[in-house]
Amino acid sequence: MKNAQVEGKHCEYENMKTDPEININHIVAKKNYTKIEIYLSFLYYFTPIINYKTMPIRISKLIIVFIASISTLIVSAQPDSSVATITASDLESHVSFLASPLLMGRMNGEKGLEIAAEYLAAQAKFLGLKPANGSSYFQSYTFNRGINDPEKEETMTLRNVAGYIEGSDPELKNEVIVYSAHYDHIGWYGDKIFVGADDNASGCAALLEIAQAFMSLNTKPLRTILFLWVSGEEIGLHGSAAYTRNPLFPLENTVVNLNADMIGRVQGIADTTIYNPMSGQNSVFLITGKQSSDLQEIVNQIEESIELDFDYSLSGTNHPLQIFSRSDQYNFVRHDIPALCFSTGLHTDYHTSRDVIELLDFNKMEAVTRAMYKIGFEVANSKARIIVDNPFSGWGNRNR
């Protein structure tokens, strides 16, 4: 989730103990990926350059969990069992990779972010998602940083990752449900690496599991499902802004955006102030502007069928923390596309080196991810498109 006051931490190479020069093409040259090949290639090329004495290397557990997760993709599930393919162990395997210290905090413009992008694209291909940008899973975009100070203006080119499942209905397949999550984080400072396990390896893993669940269906949803992993979130929501400026599917055909941002934590003993709102074991914040009563009705029906409670207390534009406008769903909202952002909250480890995988609750992550899948499934298979009866463009200055 984007910091409300600081656009991330820019950490220079001279602050590092080493200056690794790794050619990413070594890792991505092979096009026919398997999960284990990605892991072994990554470990082969990156393990020799790590010199940090304090860096936790989770190699053995990461590989064991990852190999175990492969078995869940072998059998095609029936519609009523597809949600069961979303598991805590699979979520952990993906987060273990994306939040590994070897990715150096996935900072925008650095090699670790590129490795994360290649991993997500490889997983999208492995799952059977179609590339959303012609024959590519990548959408590049360029923007200027430091525009308030011309002397420090900097051009940066980053990439979104996008894959989709084509809808099964000849007409409704032209309408799109977008699942999104940002995969960048804030990098490192000195010998401290901000691995961003919750922010937002958790959301990225959720999208992979949701994609797996949809792909396990014998009959695909009526509408098309797009899975969009965006970069540039931590420095200004640039990836989602770039997508909505140059959408891979027409915005007028985009039915809803379901965004995952920090979905892996439970309230801790330190999370006691108004600046650290956190959800409990069986709840999750659902951040929304309530743009569609049809969508809200679907959400209410799903909530009644699960053991997870939806907490709307961070919603709207009047909350003092402005969470509603600090993650990527906001760029969809601005185009009158109904959006829901799922988050377990802003813990005291947010944007620190303490946001690590050991503190994630993967059982809760499983519950949140399954809820997101169920909501998207219902919207995707509804005979009628949900109506936007409270569009952002009509909000004006009134309270939301």
Characteristic terms for this protein:
400 residues, alpha/beta, Aminopeptidase, nine-stranded mixed sheet, two-stranded antiparallel sheet, 30% helix
Structural class: alpha/beta
CA-to-CA gap between the ends?
A: 21 Å
Helical percent range? Answer: 25-40%
How would you sum up the global shape?
globular
Number of domains: 1
Instruction: Supply the CATH architecture.
Output: 3-Layer(aba) Sandwich
Classified by CATH, the class is Alpha Beta
Note down, in words, how this protein is organized.
With 400 residues, the chain is α/β, with parallel strands linked by helices. It has one domain (13-394): 3-Layer(aba) Sandwich (Aminopeptidase), CATH 3.40.630.10. The protein contains 10 helices and 11 strands. It has helices at residues 25-28, 35-46, 59-70, 88-98, 111-127, 197-215, 238-245, 293-305, 329-333, 362-381; strands at 130-131, 138-145, 154-165, 176-182, 188-189, 192-193, 224-230, 254-260, 283-288, 309-311, 339-343. The strands form 2 sheets. Strands 1, 2, 3, 4, 7, 8, 9, 10 and 11 form a 9-stranded mixed β-sheet that branches. It has a two-stranded antiparallel sheet with strand order 5-6. α8 (293-305) links the parallel β9 and β10. α3 crosses α4, α5 (111-127) packs parallel to α6 and α6 crosses α10 (362-381). The longest helix is centred in the C-terminal third of the chain and has 20 residues, at 362-381. The protein starts with 24 loop residues before the first helix and ends in a 19-residue tail after the last helix.
